[in-house]
Amino acid sequence: MPLLKLIRATKERQGELAQDLSVARNEVRHGAVLAQEFLVVIETTKELERQLSDANSTAMALDAELAEVLECNGQLQLALEGSRKGVEEQATFSEMREAELSSKLLTTDMTRQSLGDAAAVVKNALRVE
Questions:
Q1: CA–CA dist 104, 98 (Å, integer)
Q2: Using CA atoms, how far apart are residues 98 and 43, in angstroms rounded to an integer?
Q3: Dihedral sign from CA coordinates of 93, 95, 96, 98
Q4: Does residue 129 have a pLDDT over 80?
Q5: pLDDT: is 119 or 47 the higher one?
């Protein structure tokens, strides 16, 4: 009887081991799936890091370009301010010159009128004589 007991115990143990082996195989398969998913995550992370690096490079290039544009804009504003002052000075000079010429024209008109009046007086005086 002890032999039968031993055989029965061995068969039970063999069944338990077969079940444990099945569970272990399932866990190995699950581990392999997890490892594959982990590799995908690693590759995705590398790609995202590359894209982030590209984005940082682009941002730095755009920042440098913006600094250039701002510098040019400042220079253009200075040039514009200088031009505006020059135009204002030219306009002031032109207005003063216009006033001066208007005054001279008025004086010339008055002189012409006076000379015209004097010439008429002289003509009349010559007729009278």
A1: 10
A2: 80
A3: positive
A4: no
A5: 47
Distance from C-alpha of 75 to C-alpha of 129, rounded to nearest angstrom? 79
* pLDDT tens digits for range 78-109: 999 989 999 999 999 999 999 999 999 999 99
Both tokens of 121, joined, read 């007086």
Side-chain-side CA neighbours of residue 76 (13 Å): 6
User: In the chain, helix, strand, coil percent, each to 5?
Assistant: 100, 0, 0
Burial 18-56, CB ≥16 within 10 A → b, else e: eeeeeeeeeeeeeeeeeeeeeeeeeeeeeeeeeeeeeee
Q: Which amino acid is at 49?
A: E
Q: How confident is the model at residue 122 (pLDDT cuts 50, 70, 90)?
A: confident
Whether the pLDDT of residue 54 is over 90: the answer is yes
Q: What is the pTM of this model?
A: 0.51
Residue 8, CA distances (Å) to 47, 66, 78, 121 in order: 58, 85, 103, 163
State how far the Cα of 66 lies from the Cα of 75, in Å rounded to an integer: 14
